[in-house]
Amino acid sequence: MDAFYRQTPPWLITVVVFLLLVLLLGLGIYLRRRKILGRGEDDDEHTFENMTASAVLGLLALLLGFSFALALDRFDVRRSMTLQEANSIRSMYMRSQLLEDPYRARMRALLEGYTEHRIEIAGVADEDVQRQMSVKTEAYRKAISATTLAAIRPMYNTEFGTAFVDSLNDTLNIGSGRKAARLATIPTRVLTMLLLYMAITAVIIGFVKDQGKGRWAAAVLLLMLALSYGLILDIDQPNRGAIREGQVPMQDVLRTIQNG
Question: pTM score, two decimals?
Answer without folding.
Answer: 0.80
